[in-house]
Design a protein that fits this description.
This protein is an alpha/beta fold. It is built from 20 helices and 14 strands. Bound molecules: FE2/S2 (inorganic) cluster.
């Protein structure tokens, strides 16, 4: 071994006993006990980060992916070591998976730094997993390649195609409004999620898989191949094979891919696919790990220039399997080429420009629309500012009711999530369709963990009267599969003394799409009086939730821990 070269393979990151040769002797001994020969142990080591969990049905295919990745590693002359990490599923993460994203990111970072691996394959998928893996990998600075688990196939039910969870929400709203009976709901429920994999609309999981592919962290095509397809398994095998090259060369490291250009390209694609608003928080956190700032105003500017061209639910009508058959992310990138920096590198060493040149020329215009024939006239995601959100708030215009995007109305305030669930269906709730529903103390500190509660349900009495949408404002997030005129991520949040804490029932709130303003029409002297009387809520008493509430940053900075950025 050269004197200047950092130790590789088993010799790297030896446990510290004060005698490195003994540490290696011991390590090799334990692996011999597992049946490894010296020849096997001298190969480049690829760590396979296994997010399989019985509590994570979205990752139900992860064991098969581990098998395929490991096969690819062995075929390329390396040796795979699979290891577990925190695995987060949206429906199995009380109180919200966002609270645990940073825990998973820390787990990933620390294990990548602790284990003797030369490169890592990151199996991600369900919403928070790819963000957490990229955050951890960027901080660990270990060569890493992502393989998403892939999306479910679409469901088919009585003449329609169903997609989780856009149709989960639509069906539930219909049930609440009395338009769908319990028996009909049950039948549809059985067909909503027909295979393993992540949600098959452009929700947060597919948004983050698309972001990972756009920023060069996956092989081309890996964001969209269905979870249960043989193509997904072949991609996994190829990913394992490529990881051996990375293990041998030590490149690229995540920080080499995560450049300003890559981040800007991600913003372009986020707008063009009308991606999940959660993607903004995650991209900000991933960027922060590399010391880069995620500029909300740039995202807003890009939105005005780049139309929504991916015809996918919830903004459009199709599913991730359709995007894949239409040409996938490379075909989408080719269509967006004039808006992208094509010199940005990918994990194979190819530039984005080279990827789209070699990609099959076929593109289905019905799914990946031409720029002059967009799915949504106007921008997908906009950034609002004003005295209600000095550090920004987000609205997904593509999923909103256009007539409500410029609106003034009286506030109806819910002080927290418990207050919301206690009163939203009260027949005596003093609410009209013109009210602005405000939910506060649901941000990163206030909830804590900024749950996906921003799409407040339409109060039952209005839903039953046929009201489908209202203006809703909060410091919470919203699922990427949801829709409505919903203003999210208001920063700073109420629990940090942000202006949402000062709103009272009946105050007029004005939102203006054209000027991107969001204002509370109460004079400054009155607001100062209310501010003086405000008291911060108590923080969780102990443990990880306490650490989280004390050190989490606000939504515009990615809700990472302040001591993990840079
Ligand atoms: Fe896992 Fe939707 S719940 S991707």
């Amino acid at each position: 071994m050269s004197q200047n070269r950092p130790p590789r393979g088993l010799r790297s990151r030896l446990s510290r006993y004060g005698d490195e040769e003994f540490a290696l002797f011991l390590r090799r001994g334990f692996l011999k006990s597992a049946g490894f020969t010296d020849e096997a142990l001298d190969r480049p080591i690829v760590g396979v980060l296994n997010t399989s969990s019985d509590f994570n049905p979205c990752h139900g295919t992860a064991p098969r992916l581990v098998e395929a990745i490991s096969r690819g590693v062995r075929m390329a002359g390396g040796i795979p070591f699979a290891f577990p990490t925190v695995s987060l599923h949206e429906a199995f993460s009380y109180p919200t998976s966002m609270l645990l994203r940073n825990l998973m990111a820390m787990d990933v970072e620390e294990m990548l730094k602790a284990l003797p691996l030369d490169a890592a394959v990151l199996i991600g998928g369900c919403d928070k997993t790819i963000p957490a893996e990229l955050m951890g990998a960027v901080s660990a600075d270990v060569p890493a390649i992502v393989i998403p688990v892939g999306a479910m196939l679409a469901g088919r039910h009585e003449g329609t195609r169903l997609g989780a969870c856009t149709d989960c929400r639509r069906l539930w709203a219909g049930f609440r409004a009395g338009e769908i009976g319990a028996a009909d709901l049950d039948r549809a429920h059985d067909r909503l999620m027909p295979t393993q994999g992540t949600c098959m609309v452009m929700g947060t999981a597919s948004t983050m898989a698309s972001m990972a592919e756009t920023m060069g962290f996956t092989l081309a095509g890996a964001a969209t191949a269905p979870a249960v397809s043989s193509e997904r398994m072949r991609l996994a095998e190829a990913t394992g094979g490529h990881a051996v090259k990375m293990a041998t060369t030590g490149a690229p490291r995540p920080g080499e891919l995560l450049t300003k250009s890559a981040l800007r390209n991600a913003m372009v694609v986020l707008q063009a696919i009308s991606g999940s608003t959660n993607g903004i928080v995650h991209l900000a956190a991933i960027a922060g790990r590399a010391g880069l700032k995620f500029d909300l105003d740039e995202l807003d500017r890009i939105g005005r220039e780049v139309p929504v061209i991916a015809d996918l639910k919830p903004a459009g009508g199709n599913f991730i399997e359709d995007l894949h058959a239409a040409g996938g992310i490379p075909a989408l990138l080719r269509r967006l080429r004039d808006h992208l920096d094509l010199a940005a590198k990918t994990v194979t060493g190819e530039t984005l420009g080279q990827v789209i040149e070699r990609w099959a020329p076929y593109t289905d215009d019905r799914i990946i629309r031409r720029l002059d024939d967009p799915v949504v006239a106007g921008e997908a995601i906009a950034v609002l500012r004003g005295n209600l959100a000095p550090d920004g708030a987000i609205i997904k215009l593509a999923a909103a009711t256009p007539a409500l995007c410029t609106h003034q109305g009286p506030a109806l305030v819910f002080d927290n999530l418990d207050d919301l669930s206690a009163r939203i269906d009260d027949p005596a709730l003093p609410v009209t369709p013109g009210h602005v529903l405000v939910l506060r103390n649901a941000g990163p500190v206030g909830a804590p963990g900024m749950p996906e509660a921003g799409a407040l349900p339409i109060p039952k009495k209005l839903a039953q009267a046929g009201v489908k949408d209202m203006v809703r404002i909060s410091d919470a997030r919203m699922s990427g599969t949801a829709f409505g005129t919903v203003v999210l991520h208001a920063a700073p949040e109420a629990a940090k003394g942000g202006p949402l804490a000062l709103v009272r029932d009946g105050d007029q709130i004005r939102m203006d799409r054209a000027s991107r303003r969001l204002d509370l029409l109460v004079d400054e002297a009155e607001l100062a009086r209310r501010r003086a009387a405000w008291k911060p809520p108590a923080l969780p008493a102990r443990g990880y939730a306490r650490l989280y509430a004390e050190r989490v940053t606000q939504a515009d900075q990615g809700c990472d821990f302040d001591f993990l950025s840079g």
